[in-house]
């Protein structure tokens, strides 16, 4: 059975002022007519768009129904053909007006974006909780709060061991604004670390060098004995895989925090 259409706009906007109109809009039009099953919701969306177009209505109500049509499976190619066909009957000016709105609705998903995960706006992973972030943006486990190393972080981080064999590999997740302190992976031979960003947006910086932006697919090779830090952007969650490169006499030295002035200057 198709998903039931539910509408509350009438009561939300006119419930006290015009309760009968609100009832007819929410309960009859959307509650009954839109849920009648003789024709599909997609077909109803197309009929509604063409009816509003024929009436010369190009306000927010048409935008809503264009968005509704897209949500119920009308493709960019289909809406272009629908508007073109209807234009031959309802008039050229109406066709131009509707195309301007439809172009905005159907090109949102086609706008070029910096690399990130599929559900994020631009290159930001913005969620209220780590559970929401993990559900929508991450194919790896987030793990547990990184309490053992909390003293070396500003903000909350999470740690998920992926494997401890051969090359120890961890998934590290940073909440927005979280970053670790400056630190060094010491080694007499070999050593260092490799980072692979897998979600969100963050930063990596070596001492005395410009920061490097982290987006999914960014790989950072950190040599041994180099002072550096890494973490999330101010307005985005970020996760990276961290691989500890085998070392002779390897050790980690944790240093001073990345101060707010330095961090807030990041572009």
Can you describe this structure?
By secondary structure, the protein is of the alpha+beta class. It has two domains: 9-106, AhpD-like, CATH 1.20.1290; 130-264, Jelly Rolls. The chain has helices at residues 9-14, 19-33, 41-54, 60-71, 76-90, 92-106, 130-137, 260-264; strands spanning 144-145, 153-154, 157-163, 169-174, 179-180, 183-186, 189-190, 193-200, 202-206, 212-214, 219-222, 228-232, 238-244, 247-248, 251-254. The strands form five sheets. It has a six-stranded antiparallel β-sheet with strand order 1-3-4-13-8-11, with no helix packed on it. Strands 10-9-12 form a three-stranded antiparallel β-sheet, with no helix packed on it. A hairpin with a 5-residue loop joins strand 9 and strand 10 (212-214). Helix 3 packs antiparallel against helix 4, helix 3 (41-54) runs parallel beside helix 5 and helix 5 (76-90) packs antiparallel against helix 6 (92-106). The longest helix is centred in the first third of the chain and has 15 residues, at 19-33. It is elongated, with a radius of gyration of 26 Å.
CATH top-level class of the largest domain: Mainly Beta
**What order do the SSEs take from the amino end to the carboxyl end, as H and E?**
HHHHHHHEEEEEEEEEEEEEEEH
Question: Over the alpha carbons, how many angstroms does the gyration radius reach?
Answer: 26 Å
**Spans of at least 5 consecutive residues with low confidence:** 110-119
Query: Could you name the CATH topology of the largest domain?
Result: Jelly Rolls
Strand adjacency order, main sheet: 1-3-4-13-8-11
CATH homologous superfamily heading of the largest domain:
Jelly Rolls
**Which architecture of the largest domain would the CATH scheme give at its second level?**
Sandwich
Secondary-structure content class: alpha+beta
Mean pLDDT, to the nearest integer, reads 88
**What percent of the residues sit in helical stretches (DSSP H or I)?**
25-40%
Number of strands: 15
